[in-house]
Amino acid sequence: MNIINRPNPNACMTPPKRKTPQLQQQQLLQQQQQLLQQQQLLQQQQQQLQQQQQQQQQQKQLQQQLQQQQQQQQQQQQQ
Fold first, then answer.
1. What backbone torsions phi and psi does residue 16 show, to the nearest 5 degrees?
2. 27: which residues sit within 8 A by CB, 6+ positions away?
3. How would residue 11 be classed by pLDDT, with cut points 50, 70 and 90?
4. 3-state secondary structure the chain
5. CA-CA distance, 79 to 59, in Å (whole number)?
6. Among 5, 27, 32, 74, which is least packed, fewest CB within 10 Å?
7. Average pLDDT rounded to a whole number, residues 59-76
8. Would you give the end-to-end CA distance of the chain in angstroms?
9. What are φ and ψ of residue 14, in 5° steps?
């Protein structure tokens, strides 16, 4: 038997340290702040996505306009 792989018998003997209510509150507050930050980040990302979509739509419209202009030019040349 390898001694290294044996679980430490003293590991489970120590009782888990009880957190004081104050500590728990602080941790909860921190978590809340982190969540708020994450939400803000997500909102920013959503806004960026919306902007990108709008830009894409604008580009499509521009392309369509260009195509129309080209078609008109071709028609004029044919006449």
1. -65, 140
2. 19
3. low
4. CCCCCCCCCCCCCCCCCCCCHHHHHHHHHHHHHHHHHHHHHHHHHHHHHHHHHHHHHHHHHHHHHHHHHHHHHHHHHHC
5. 30
6. 5
7. 93
8. 97
9. -75, 125
